[in-house]
# Entry
Amino acid sequence: MKPKTIIEKIWESHKVHAEDGKPDLMYVDLQMVHEVTSPQAFEGLRLSGRKVRRPDLTFATMDHNVPTENRSSITDAVSKKQMETLTNNCNEFGVEIADLNSPNNGIVHIIGPELGLTQPGKIIVCGDSHTSTHGAFGALAFGIGTSEVEHTLATQTLWQSPPKTMEVRVNGRLNPGATAKDIILAVIAKHGVDFGTGHVLEYTGEAIRGLTMEERMTICNMSIEAGARAGLISPDQVTFDYLEGRRHVPEGEAFNRKVEEWQALATDEGAEYDAVVEIDSEEIEPMVTWGTNPSQGVGIHGTVPSPEDAETGAERKAIEQSLEYMDLEPGTKMTDIHIQHVFLGSCTNARISDLRAAAKIAEGRTVADGVRAMVVPGSQQVKMQAEEEGLDKIFKDAGFDWRQSGCSMCLSMNPDFVPEGERCASTSNRNFEGRQGKGARTHLVSPAMAAAAAIAGRFVDIRYLDEAVTN
Amino acid sequence: MEPIVTHTGNTAVLPRVNVDTDQIIPKQFLKRVERTGFGQFLFFDWRFLEDGSDNPDFELNQPQAEGATVLIADHNFGSGSSREHAPWALQDYGFRVIIAPSFADIFYSNCFKNGILPIRLDEEKVYRLMEKGKNQKYDVMVDLPNQKITDEQGFEETFEIDDYYKQMLINGWDEISITLQYEDKIDQFEKSMNV
# Structure
C-alpha cells in the first residue's frame, strides 16, 4: 500500500461525498464556537428555521471580549450584548457553553485541549484562524468564516477542496534559550508570511518530537501566520499521555483502543508531500519581530533591516511601511529597543508551561521602571493551577499585573490595549498594525523573552539576563 | 446572495502587500451581532485621520477611486484573522470584484459566500492594471461565465476559477440548501462511523 501522510488519512476518512468538479463534502467532528464570529450564524439558522444538527459535537466559550480585571463587571455595552447573545443562542439551540461563571472558561484554543475535546484524527473547525492550534494533537483543525460556521451548525459538514501537503522539518536539537515560539517565528522569518498558502503543514523532525504538547500547540497555533490552511503534528506517546484522564477522553479499555487507532494515523515512513521546507535548529536563536507581519523577525543579536536589503520592490515597500509604523531605523540592534508594555498571554503562549517559563525569569527580580507588564492566563484552569504553584505571587512580587483569563491584549477587543505610539513585548501571534491598539507597536517574543524584557526594559538575550540588567 | 454574472465598474488600486483582515476591518468593529453596516468602518485606521475626516493620502480616498466596485490589490490579500466581517465590509462599501496576485485561503473562501468575486491573476498582469488605474478613473469589465477581464483599451486576460465557486456566484446559491440535498449521505456517514 502506498505510504500516506496523516493529512491524507484524515481527509479520506471524513469524506461524506465526492464527485468530479466539486470540492469534497467533509464531516466535521467538533466545532468550537465563540462570541465574535457566531451571532450572525445563529441568526441565519433562525431566519431559515434550521436547527443545530449536532449540538453534542459543538462547544462554545466566550473569550475575545472578556475583561481580565473584573469579569463580573462588563462596562462596554456592545461587548456585553455580544456575550449575552452567545449565551442566549447556546440555550436556544442546546449547545454546551463555558460561560464567564464556568471554571472551564478560557480562550477557545486553550480549553479544547484542556477538556480533551481535541483529539487525534478529528476534523475540528472554529470561526477563528488560530484553530490550527488543535493540530498539535494530529487533528486537522482550521479556521472558517461565519457563513461556514452556520453551514457546520446546520449540516455538520463543509465543502472543502483537498489541501496540498507540506512537510516542515525542524532538524537537530534546539539551542539553549530557544523555545517553540522561536522555532515557529524562525520558520516564518525564513520562508515568508505566505509560504503555506493552500497547504496543510506537518511539522516533523527531531526538534519537534522533543517538544511537549503545550509547546507543539504554540507551533501549530501560528501555522496561519505562514498562510497555511492548517498545521499539525503526528500523534505519539507524548500526545496520548497528555490526553489520558481528560474529561472528554474515553477511559480504560476504550482509551487503549483509541490509542491504537491514533497510532495508525501518524504519517507512514516514505510518504510523500507536495512540498518540503527545512530549518536547522542551530540556526534558531531567541527571536524578536521588528515589523508589522510575523515574518519580519530576527534573532536577539540581530538588527533592524534596511529597505535596501529587499530583493523585490514589493518587499522593499513592505519594509519601509513597517519601519515607519514601528518608528525604527535600519541597523538598530534589537537589544537597544526599549519597551513600555509587556503582555504575557494569548492562545499562542498562555498555558501553564508558558507561565512557568516566564515566572522562572521573573522570580526574585523586578519589572523595570516605566514598564507595565501583565500576565493573562489562557483559561481559568491555567489560572487556578498557576495559583496553586504560587506563580501569581512570583509575578506580583516582581511587579507584574496578575489577571483573569481571556484574549486580552492579543487583539484588544476588551479593555486591555497598548496606547498609541508605545511599544509592547508580546507573547501573542500577530504584530499587525493596530492589532494591540491604534498606533500600538508590537514585538512578538517567547514568554521567557517577554519576562526578561519586562525586567530589563528592553529586549535582552535570556541567556545573559543578569549581565544585561547590571549594565 | 446577490449573483454575479458580468460586472463593469471603476477600479480602486491598493498597492500594498500582505493586507491583513485587521486592516480591512479593525477589531473594535467586530462587536456587532449583525451582518450589515460594516462598510463605514472599512480600512478604518488607514482611511480616516485622528479627527474623523478622510485621510487624503489613502488610496481609496483619491478622486479616481470614487465609486469603485473593483479593488486591485497585491500579494496575500486578506491574510490573518478569519473574520468574515472583512468581506462584509468590502461588499457593503461597494466592492464586487477583487483582483490580486494571491489571496489568503480563508478570506478567498469567505468572499464567495458574500457575492464577491476574488480573481487570482499573475503579478505582472495585476501590476499592469494597477498602472492603468493608479492616477485616473479606470473601468474594467469582468465576465464570469467566460472567465475574462477586459477594458476599453484592449486589455484582455482570462482567469482561473474553480467551477463550483463559479456556479455558486453566477447562481447566487445558498450553500446550506445545496448541502441539505445530501442529508441522506450525512446520515449514512454518521451511522457508519458511529458518530
In short: Chain B touches chain A through 50 residues (CB under 8 Å). Residues 85 and 131 of chain B are 29 Å apart (CA to CA). Chain B has one domain: 6-193.
